[in-house]
Structure prediction request, 252 residues.
Amino acid sequence: MLGLPDGTRACLFDLDGVLTDTASVHAAAWKQMFDEYLRTRAEREGAGSDPAFRPFDVKSDYGPYVDGKPRLAGTDSFLRSRGIELPAGGPGDAPGAETVFALATRKNDLVQEKIVTVGVDVYPGSVRYLHAVKEAGLTTAVVSSSANAEQVLRVAGLLELIDHRVDGITAKERGLPGKPAPDTFLAAAADLGVGKEEAVVFEDALAGVASGKAGGFGFVVGVDRLGHADALREHGADVVVADLAELLEDGS
Prediction:
């Protein structure tokens, strides 16, 4: 009924783009943060080698540089794509500091603001699938690079359907590298007391699918929200669906 291999005991879900449509919230926050910085930089450099303001393009920049990556890595990745190298910085940076840490913090502040003011959309098919998973007696975990995962789950009304969470806060506390490294997914499986071959990874990001493949999990489900099914398969997805409800035999 769940479209999963026999012997599956746990389902490990990415959050943004798989269970909730917070990807649009994150994309809007990334764009606002980067555009503010890029505009200021262009105005400051004036007659420099490349003074023109080129805004962050959600269609061409979000997927390759920030989607599915830890916030600091995503910030640095996009900046380098524009030939910009900034100091890493740290928690003591002032809000306006020109460091990767300060910019990433600004993005996180914007996300939290938008979650409260705009809210969180939940994919109905994912909710149906989560209920079916729980009814089948499988354990569930959310594995996300976001530090706001608990807040998103609460706002979305999904907390009672999730048994465990390994998020950006967990990764920082444990020193776990982010996706595409498999460490966060492996940690979730270990925390749930299941072997990786007994766990299924659900991901919409290429980096996330790659991490599931690299971790040697029993099955990797790619969720195609952006029309890149072939790329998801190339990165290691065993099956690709447009919505989790497709995995339910009766589609209900």
